[in-house]
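Hello K.,

You asked for the raw outputs rather than the summary table, so here they are, unedited. I folded two proteins back to back in the same session to keep the settings identical. This is the first:
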Amino acid sequence: MHHLALFREFAKCPDILALAEEVGYGPYEASKMPGEKAAALRILGIRDPEPVVRLALELLKDPETTDGESYVQVVSALCPSEAAKHFLTALLLNPPGRVVQAIGRKLGRVGATEMVRQWFHDELPAKRIAACSVVDFLPQAEEWDLEVLLLADDPNSDVSDAALVAGDSLRRARITADLLISIANERDLSHRWVLLDALINVGDLHGGGAVPPVVRNGAKVSGTCHGHTPFGTTQKKQEEIERRSRQN
């Protein structure tokens, strides 16, 4: 049964609805496990979504909420047409990293690409930083490399720092995609293990050290991808960046 249909069935049961009200609208400390309150709100939102969405947004924005990422699904399920706006606004409050990641995963599904593109050029530094924080979750496109590299020279140091982090994230995402294809196509078992080890290292953001070399067809290739700049951009892209910089 589809999740939405399941929640609708739950909302029809008086006992479950009463329990959902107790957990969903009760003190946060009363929740016994992560995600319990969010699940209760999903049930309550079937009948009255507006107050539930307001509460879910308050909880995901609150740094004291230990499972704030679970409320991203509540908002996207109950108000999909406004979810992108709500999520991007929440990013301005600098929520915990796990909430940013949960929002990023949803943005590509709720039509937020154009809003993120606009935020890269917004006069408010916080919006440019927010765009950098989620760009690697959006569908991969060459334009994101250009946007991030241009912000790497932003006069606001916080923005330029965020752009450098975003550039590294985009590079890792690209290398990860390449590695997954290589693993799927590699027939030599020993080479597969080397590729898998490289994939783990790329994804280990806290393991220390740079992106490891990648082995392709028995030959080592730089972690930044052969023929690319440190951000993973080609010379052609670099020339385009310089051209746009001169125009600005």
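The second followed immediately with the same parameters:
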Amino acid sequence: MKSNVRQNDSDVKIKDVAAVADRMVWAGRMPTVDSISKELNAGNIDRVRQCLTLWKAGYNHRHAEKTPITDFPPEVQPLVQAFEKRVTALEAKLKAQSPEALTQRNLLAQVNERQAAQIDALVLALADAEVKIADQDKRLSSLRKQIGFQQQALAKAKRRNGGAERAPAPSNDP
């Protein structure tokens, strides 16, 4: 019985990986090493990974090329120029905001670290408090037992002395 899995690296060609990846992109799916390996029945995913990396580099390069404005119909050219200016302005704004965003990210990270340290300290303090509460509960229980024993001893002593206390004292009244 023959396996459908390709046996060596040379069986996986970049054109095969590119064809599968292109189909996935056209279908609105993200090409991954696993999905392409599955579709090609490739046994060694390292070769698929290499080919996919090469395809991605070419794909990004192909889609980064700009279409000359003269290739558009004359009535659309002003719109394309306005769009390009807006995109350029937004890119510049984004680049200008990048250092500020980085600074804010670092500040937030520092605040986060301080708060995490505070939380850790509070968790430890809570654990200590819970241990102290447990110790106090044991001590309180012990004191309650002692009070109970003392009350029993007092009651026994009162009963023993109770006969003498109840007997009327002889009266020497004239």
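Confidence is low (pLDDT under 50) at residues 1-7.

Happy to rerun anything if the numbers look odd on your end.

Regards,
P.
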